Amino acid sequence: MPRSRLHVLTSLAGLAACQCILPIPAQPAPPPSGEAVYQRRCAACHDQTNPRIPPRESLRQMPASRILHTLDFGAMMTVAYPMSREDREAVAAYLGTNAPAVAFPPAAYCADRRVTVSDKPKSQWNGWSPPGNTRYLTAEQAGLSINQVSRLKLKWAFGFDGDVTAFAQPTVIDGQVFVGSAGGVIHALRAATGCLQWVFQANGPVRSSILAAPLAKGHALLFGDQTGWFYSLEAETGKLLWKKKIEEHDAARLTGAPVAYNGNVFVPVASWEETRSLDPNYPCCTFRGSIVALQIRDGQLVWKSYMIPEPAKPTGKTARGTPQFGPSGAGIWAAPSIDAKRGVMYVATGDNYSSPATATSDAIAALDLASGRIVWSRQTLPGDAYNSSCGTDKQSCPVENGPDYDFGSSAILTRVPGGREILLAGQKSGMVYALDPDKQGEIVWQVRIVSRAPNVGPSVGVQWGMASDGQNVYAAISASGRTRPTDPLDTRRNILDPKQGGGFVALRIGDGSKVWTAPPIVCAPGAPTGCSPAQSAAVTAITGVVFSGSMDGHFRAYSAEQGSILWDYSTARDFETVNGVKAKGGSIDGPGAVVANGMVFVNSGYSRFGGMPGNVLLAFAPEGR
Question: What is the mean pLDDT of residues 454-482?
Fold first, then answer.
């Protein structure tokens, strides 16, 4: 009896109820056998009779691509962290069918599927942020005023078929929307109605914001996926122009949005290799964060700059004899900030994964635009070497055992009113910094906006991004409370505290003094599992208004002057979608809101770290528009 994809996903959630993960050899012989991977990692669960776990025969009726996506960023992602990409692909191919994972009904498509992108749009939010990574537009640029915000109403909802996470920030250019998904599908939508114009299937999940760039007589859409591939599509048709595997490391992730300048596109490269250390037989770690510069016209490599100059070397063995390597890490999770005047870009780096710790981790660095040479680097937290084994058996935990306080968000390039330019950077540690770009990143001021409390995860302060309107910088606080599951069949790594975390702060960019503080709003009694007041998602600002999403599913607009709430919408519910996909909202995390042409767009659903799953893109407009 045929089942909907959401029903299939529900079955796969049952698959996640068993954590039968056994060690794999340190260097498995390629190519892996899907049957062997299944026997080693899956059979102990799926060959038994348990109503919570779908049997092997049920899995054999599912598309292989859907099984793979579920391992990547679905119900099985926590269990699958230690698995290599090759093992995931092999077991998915062994179990699943060749049927397509996504097939939208004809009614989901526009009657007129033509896509038009202007070289001089009247309104746009292109890529991660407007210039400088300020995540700010004036009311005129946004087409939305503070007086209209209180009248925002849901205009349409679009469902990401079969996903449990909605983490790709849309790009909006006039009346056109481009957005990726955890299923790896790129969607071209009409902004006014949400109807589909075309779709494209990438190799892996797409979390990166899409950047539209002029190319010949049309436009290229530039984005990366979570398997190290970077793509260029023809915006008008969705046709693949070129794609490049810009990072061969198995654990590479292209999470940060690309930026373009002078005919080149710059791509930040991060990794989830630190989670591979959950397998005590994994030789941790060898990944090095980097920026890759490609020609927009053909994808040819211009330069690649590693944040750790030398490749990792053997450093010893664990107590059980697993080889160890270092240094490693310093991934770049967020979009670079272009400074054309100084001929550099600014990047924010992550922590090290193994010893020895380096001077380029947890840092803001300036790279030469022409060559990729590191001009200067300012580290804010030395010695932060950490991987996931530090929280389990500690077999591969670095001697530093750092706090995991990397930078997950972009540096903001802005100007102090009536004065010099500065860089603003928010760190997971709970610190916000202002740095001087003319003095090799010398710290101008630093302010702690939150301190770590008991049972709070490593994302204490700023997780995915701040916003600045040239007067203040607005920082939402994560600080989610977490406990470990006690049920052996519960695959969540953490259970979120419904009463701990969140809050909002506005600081004057001139001196870091506090303008206002908005308290967190705890989850209501009886809130669903995964509710948290933590405000980890990136912040977005327009004149007089700051938008912030929360892990409780609420999407709120705050007064930029006072911090009071102007508008509040709960997204944690079921939605009727314009594309006929069964969809619901959940926690809001990762990307922030996008404002363009008088409309506001936000994703809802974030199942990582114990959050509430969801799979919907929501579009709002003032009542009567």
Answer: 90
Beta strands per DSSP E along 504-582: 504-508, 514-518, 540-542, 545-549, 554-559, 565-570, 574-575
304-363, pLDDT tens digit by residue?
A: 999 999 999 999 999 999 999 999 999 999 999 999 999 999 999 999 999 999 999 999
Contact 549, 586 (CB under 8 A): no
Contact (Cβ atoms closer than 8 angstroms) between residue 325 and residue 288? no
CA 510 to chain centre: 30
Residue labelled with tokens 């709002």: 620
127: left (phi over 0), alpha (psi -120 to 50) or beta: left
Q: Which two tokens stand for residue 169?
A: 């920030």
pTM of the model: 0.88
Residue 391 has a CB neighbour count (10 Å cut-off) of: 16
- Pairwise CA distance, residues 590 & 550, whole Å: 10
Strands (E) across 387-522 are located at 412-415, 421-426, 431-436, 442-448, 467-468, 472-476, 482-483, 495-496, 504-508, 514-518
pLDDT in tens, 138-183: 999 999 999 999 999 999 999 999 899 999 999 999 999 999 999 9
Q: Which of 130, 161, 119, 154 is nearest to 259 (CA)?
A: 130
Tokens of 591: 């990307």
Angle at 506 between CA 151 and CA 154, to 5 degrees: 20
**C-alpha span between 156 and 620 (Å, rounded):** 7
Task: State the Cα–Cα distance between residues 82 and 87, nearest whole angstrom.
Answer: 10
| Cα separation values, 425 from 285, 408, 419, Å | 27, 10, 19
DSSP per-residue codes, 88-106: HHHHHHHHSBSS-S----G
Percent of the chain with pLDDT over 90: 76
pLDDT of the residue at 11: 40
